[in-house]
Amino acid sequence: MPVLPNELNGLLVVDKPGRPLTSKPGAAYDGVVALAADADERAGPAGDYLPTSHDVVDRVRRWSGQRRIGHTGTLDPLASGVLVLCLGTATRLVEYYQGETKQYYAEVRLGRATDTYDAVGAVTSAAPIPDLNELRIDQALEKFRGENWQLPPAYSAIKQGGEALYAKARRGETVTVTARRVTFHQLTLLEYQPPDWLALRVVCSAGAYVRSLAHDLGRALDTFGYLDGLRREAVGPFTLADAHSLPAIAQAGSEGTLAGRLLAPGTGLPLPAMPATAEQLQRLGFGQIVPMACADCDPAHVLVQVHDDKGQLAGIIRRLRPTEDDSTVWLCKAEKWLI
């Protein structure tokens, strides 16, 4: 795909605004409400600006002048933190970033349930909170650690019949949610303030809902619970240290310096990498099947990123099969091409 003049191409890591947190464990947790909301953007229970991921993309489009922008995984309006955007030619790589592990700081409120499983929703149930301590909470968390079946919230971006479930739920339609297999690699109780508030560190697979975890944890503790605040600390290799606030992005856009805040296309791509010659790159770009030396390649990885002699990402290739006369040479074909 040709690169247009003055087009911005690369990854932009955004620190998305969200609901203010009860606790602020470090400077990276301040200032999560960054801008006044536009007329069509959502406000939280206290009038906070709670943009959707789509709202953030729309703003970055306006500030950057780049129409081709995609995100690698949504964040709920309530949630703040790392949102990775792909601009220009990097939009062709979105699918390869979507399976990354996520890390969160989560705050849970006990004693009530809401229809959205978070603080933005309407209260649907309430129950007394039993006498709890950190040991009992940690024991309840143990059942969620590792691989589990999880029922996503009815108010979610999961598509059903080509439409997001939350759209159906907001219209009052009956929503059927199917359990999915997710993994919680780490669930750590950071703080408990009796009787009804606790903070967690969560490291989980793509597709896991921390809102559902909060809801299910409440039931495991013989009461109800909902997600009171959430901050995404990392998506794969991208952390809050890489992220830019919306005001900083707006200023860079007005000054014409936004390109300096972009990471090169392919940065942090979770695929093995290999170099290619100019001739190989040309043939791959023409859609030809090309033999390439793969002596050090892991046979389990059929998709590989290839780079030119300057180290720049040229595209993603699919390794089809080894050649008949040399098992260290594979026949390869372009899967996604950037040049």
* Most strands sheet: 10 strands, mixed
CATH architectural group of the largest domain: 2-Layer Sandwich
Radius of gyration: 22 Å
Helix content: 10-25%
Report the total helices: 7
Low-confidence runs: 1-5
The CATH superfamily of the largest domain bears the name Pseudouridine synthase
Q: How many beta-strand segments?
A: 21
What is the average per-residue confidence, as pLDDT, rounded to a whole number? 88
Strand content is: 25-35%
Gross morphology: globular
| Element pattern in H and E | EEEHEEHEEEHEEEHEEHEEEHEHEEEE
CATH top level of the largest domain? Alpha Beta
Helix and strand content put the structural class at alpha+beta
Structural features, described:
The chain has 339 residues and is α+β, with helices and mostly antiparallel strands. The chain has 2 domains: 231 residues, Pseudouridine synthase; 65 residues, Archaeosine Trna-guanine Transglycosylase, Chain: A, domain 4 (Roll). It contains 7 helices and 21 strands. The strands form 5 sheets. Strands 1, 4, 5, 6, 9, 12, 13, 14, 15 and 16 form a 10-stranded mixed β-sheet that branches. A hairpin with an 8-residue loop joins strand 7 and strand 8. Helix 1 packs parallel to helix 6. The radius of gyration is 22 Å and the shape is globular. The termini are close together.
